[in-house]
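== Folding the chain ==

***
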Amino acid sequence: MKKEDLIQLGLTEEQAEKVVKLHSEELDGSFVPKSRFNEVNEENKSLKQTVSERDKQLEDLSKTAGDSEELKKQIETLKTANSEALKKHEKEMAQLRLDNAIDSALASAGAKNVRAVRGLIDASGFKLSDKGEVAGLSEAIEAVKQSDGYLFASPENQSFKGFQPGESQGSPSEQVDTSKMTYSETVAYLAANPGATI
């Protein structure tokens, strides 16, 4: 939760800063963002698959170790295949990092449904910088906010409803004669003054 979210919930700026500071101290570097966890997990799965494929290749190679010329051809074939597999893996990981950066940016922008908003953005031209930023993404998000604003949570929709800490609910300062009110006026009066009696 960000400081701005805490302020919207009714905390003062000073209180929000203290909460954020305490939260950061508690995590103390042990927190890993979900996108980074998913990224490492996918890379781990991919590497395990690559290792098992190469183990199988070595096993097949050891079976045909009798013919030197045939062995050299297989080694060259395997080198080429492994090089292509490495390039494919690097491309997949780059795409995964880009996807995670886009999803994270959409969530930070207040997208109610990241997949729905993602479908409205043409991500084919996006590139991930070394700093983890996606050039042109903020403009694309703003364009979707303009055309389909209902897909994003607006600040007024995120406001805290109900009892506001620090606000006096108060009680009616004078006795109101509800017998002279209509039913709808009485209901409205009681809704506005929950502590009032009839």
Remarks:
- The chain has a mean pLDDT of 78.
- Helices lie at 3-8, 13-27, 34-63, 68-108, 114-120, 137-147, 183-192.
